[in-house]
Amino acid sequence: MTIVNADDQTGLYLLTPPKIDLAVFPDRLKSVLDTGAIDCLQLRLKDVSDDEIRKAIDAILPLCSDRDIPLILNDRPDIAKKSGVDGVHVGEEDASYAEARAIMGEEHIVGVSCYDSRHRAMELGEKGADYVAFGAFYPTQTKEAKTSVTPEIIEIWTTFTTVPCVAIGGITADNLGPIVEAGADFIAVTGGVWNHPDGAEAGAKAIKAAIAAASD
After folding, report:
1. Is residue 59 packed enough to be buried (19+ CB in 10 Å), middle (13-18) or exposed (0-12)?
2. How far is it, in rounded angstroms, from Cα 134 to Cα 168?
3. Any binding-site annotation on 39?
């Protein structure tokens, strides 16, 4: 499975909230996935046990598989490989790209955080990373951003390589236009969906509509 969009439009890469209640979250997620707005989902849980991660995968993976939406696990290639998810995303302080690829194999997605470094992105792209992620583009409440970037990094990246890139950090329906226009393959969103005042489904639809408007 790849992370390339079939329609050539910027995709919506949704991250789960850092804490989820498995008694209610799967139904909430199902409603969001059923909007048709989500192109990729990353399970991103922080400060939870391995068992909680596995239980979350067991609940979420069937929802993604039924809709042909890749499920990416953050940080943990060891759990990702054994659990049957489609891929793993690693940052600079997680497992290295080489370790993640060795565990996951060539048939699974391995994405990498590159922050504001085109050099890191180029190096890992040449080694076979399936996508690189740049950010943060805007202030975010989800996590303290290490770096700040502008859409120019996307413009430069897409000029010199075909490796897909993901933009992340504080992105909402109101501010994504310049990033889409710069050529981002995917926009990663957390709060812009889950914290939308009219509900997560409305948030997903609003972002997808804003992507379409910026693509015209």
Report:
1. middle
2. 6
3. no
82 marked as part of a ligand binding site: no
CA atoms of 158 and 212, how far apart (whole Å)? 19
**pTM of whole model > 0.85?**
yes
Q: Any binding-site annotation on 140? A: yes
Q: Annotated binding residue at 142?
A: yes
Indicate if the pLDDT at residue 140 is higher than 90.
no
Q: 45 a known binding residue?
A: yes
Confirm if 111 and 3 have CB atoms less than 8 A apart: yes
Can you give the pLDDT at residue 6?
A: 53
Mean pLDDT of the chain: 94
Q: Please answer whether residues 87 and 130 qualify as being in contact, where contact means their C-beta atoms are separated by less than 8 angstroms.
A: yes
